[in-house]
């Protein structure tokens, strides 16, 4: 039997069956640069929730951020409708929540519909600009300003849209925007503002416009967190059978979400996410970033090399392995959480992290986490090592053991096609990191001859490289000695046996 494709005409015929409440009458209030899985499974889902409760009553115009986008035609084909499937572990229970989202009014391709995008930009009803153009989107590109066509870069687009709005609305009160980028970059709002000002200056736009950017627009720093896995290609027939229609934009993700927006407090009254129970905070970013980096990203990095060298492929498998799982939990509970001043808050956060790690729907590969793992260790785990040592006057053995595992993971035994190849004692893998990191470990491991003295030499060489670590890590008391001991044990007995010994 052929199924109907999701669109407004079809869904309104069957709204009782799908519990669908139309919001087609709502005004467009948000301009969104980006229409990918993350924004649809995160922000647009939140706007939908607000509209359901009558707390915002506004729609989103989604603008394609690059020339190669493929989502806008699909969005318009389905009248802005799509399905979210949020699945995972929530409060210890396996959950799967399916909803039809209708917060997007339409999609626009700025390379073909720039005039339409400009009309949206000049609308006094548009209050917010949200974006997710990936980390590479928040970069400066030198380009010529042509009012008749879309700039290529995201900062260029935003500058051009702001300039058009300025020329239409002038210095009227509230003529500016609240701009909330969702790219995974520290101080993303601050950076975006700097890029807009730099672009405006390079285009020789007026001083009055530069002043208007400063006085009438608010750029917010944010922290976003939700795993959105997107279109479930391998399971789509199963889902179509379950929902009873075809949705070419069906989007899967985890139940957990966190959105922190650093902005003036009165913003929360316009977008009252917190009033409907969403995990959204209009607050300073740093405390939340510290929790995420140290207690979510940190354990990921901790387990990557250790688990992979045990022959484990995913985060879930690592957590469920008796030895590796105990190692991870011990490190989190005994070494990471105690470094926080508010241990209770950290413990509560860990509970949500654990549920995310064991989500049966997310196949989070350790080899992916191990990409650029040296930089990740430096930013995610070295601060915890120092905090722990300062508080307890000795080093955290589990984190230091994972540092030793990183050394072993970065041990190449051959080079093919300009790639360094390592081995986890059962199969080969490509060590993926920055060139300078690969060359450092390759040179250091060339000294290894099986003796503890050669391990001492290679460890000293790596830890002393200030271009990698910004300091000489040999100066941290006992760090070198412990890493040498663990490396020697791993090479002599294997990863699992060494884990069991600590």
From TrEMBL:
Does the record's keyword annotation contain Coiled coil? no
- Domain of life (superkingdom): Bacteria
Matching Gene3D superfamilies, A to Z? N-(1-d-carboxylethyl)-l-norvaline Dehydrogenase, domain 2, NAD(P)-binding Rossmann-like Domain
| Signal peptide feature range | none
* Record keywords: NAD, Oxidoreductase
Describe the location of the Mannitol dehydrogenase C-terminal domain by residue ranges. 285-489
Reaction(s) catalysed by this chain, per the record, are: D-mannitol 1-phosphate + NAD(+) = beta-D-fructose 6-phosphate + NADH + H(+)
Which residue ranges does the record assign to the Mannitol dehydrogenase N-terminal domain? 29-265
Mark the transmembrane ranges: none
Q: Which InterPro entries match?
A: 6-PGluconate_DH-like_C_sf (IPR008927), 6PGD_dom2 (IPR013328), Mannitol_DH_C (IPR013118), Mannitol_DH_N (IPR013131), NAD(P)-bd_dom_sf (IPR036291)
User: What's the protein called, per UniProt?
Assistant: Tagaturonate reductase
């Amino acid at each position: 039997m052929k199924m109907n494709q999701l669109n407004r005409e079809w869904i309104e015929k069957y709204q009782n069956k799908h519990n669908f409440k139309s919001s087609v009458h709502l005004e467009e209030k948000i301009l969104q640069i980006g229409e990918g899985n993350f924004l649809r499974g995160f922000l647009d889902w939140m706007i939908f929730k607000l509209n359901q409760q009558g707390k915002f009553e506004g729609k989103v115009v989604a603008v394609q951020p690059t020339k190669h986008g493929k989502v806008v035609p699909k969005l318009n084909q389905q009248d802005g409708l799509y399905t979210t499937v949020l699945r995972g572990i929530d409060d210890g229970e396996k959950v799967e929540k399916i909803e039809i989202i209708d917060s997007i009014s339409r999609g626009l391709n700025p390379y073909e519909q720039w005039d339409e995008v400009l009309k949206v930009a000049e609308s006094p009803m548009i209050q917010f600009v949200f974006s997710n153009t990936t980390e590479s989107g928040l970069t400066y590109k030198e380009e010529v300003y042509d009012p008749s066509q879309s700039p290529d870069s995201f900062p260029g687009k935003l500058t051009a849209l702001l300039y058009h709005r300025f020329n239409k609305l002038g210095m009227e009160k509230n003529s500016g925007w609240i701009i909330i980028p969702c790219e995974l970059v520290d101080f993303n709002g601050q950076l975006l503002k700097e890029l807009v000002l730099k672009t405006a200056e390079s285009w020789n736009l007026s001083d009055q416009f530069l002043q208007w950017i400063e006085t009438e627009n608010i750029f917010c720093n944010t922290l976003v967190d939700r795993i959105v896995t997107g279109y479930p290609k391998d399971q789509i027939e199963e889902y179509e059978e379950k929902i009873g229609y075809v949705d070419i934009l069906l989007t899967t993700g985890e139940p957990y979400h966190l959105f922190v927006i650093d902005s003036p407090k009165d913003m929360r009254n316009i977008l009252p996410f917190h009033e409907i129970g969403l995990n959204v905070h209009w607050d300073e970013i740093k405390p939340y970033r510290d929790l995420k980096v140290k207690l979510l990203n940190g354990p990921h990095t901790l387990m990557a090399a250790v688990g992979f060298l045990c022959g484990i492929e995913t985060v879930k498998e690592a957590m469920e392995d008796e030895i590796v799982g105990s190692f991870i939990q011990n490190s989190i509970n005994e070494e990471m959480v105690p470094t926080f001043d508010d241990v209770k808050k950290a413990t509560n956060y860990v509970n949500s992290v654990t549920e995310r790690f064991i989500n049966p729907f997310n196949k989070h590969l350790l080899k992916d986490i191990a990409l650029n793992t040296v930089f990740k260790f430096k930013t995610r785990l070295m601060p915890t090592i120092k905090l722990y040592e300062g508080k307890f006057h000795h080093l955290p053995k589990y984190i230091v053991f994972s540092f030793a595992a990183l050394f072993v993971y970065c041990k190449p035994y051959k080079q093919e096609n300009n790639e360094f190849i390592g081995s986890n004692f059962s199969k080969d893998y490509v060590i993926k990191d920055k060139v300078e990191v690969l060359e450092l470990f390759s040179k250091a491991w060339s000294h290894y001859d099986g003796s503890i003295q050669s391990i001492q030499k290679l460890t000293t060489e790596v830890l002393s490289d200030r271009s990698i670590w910004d300091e000489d890590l040999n100066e941290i008391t006992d760090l070198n000695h412990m890493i040498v001991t663990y490396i020697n044990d791993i090479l002599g007995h294997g990863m699992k046996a060494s884990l069991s010994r600590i």
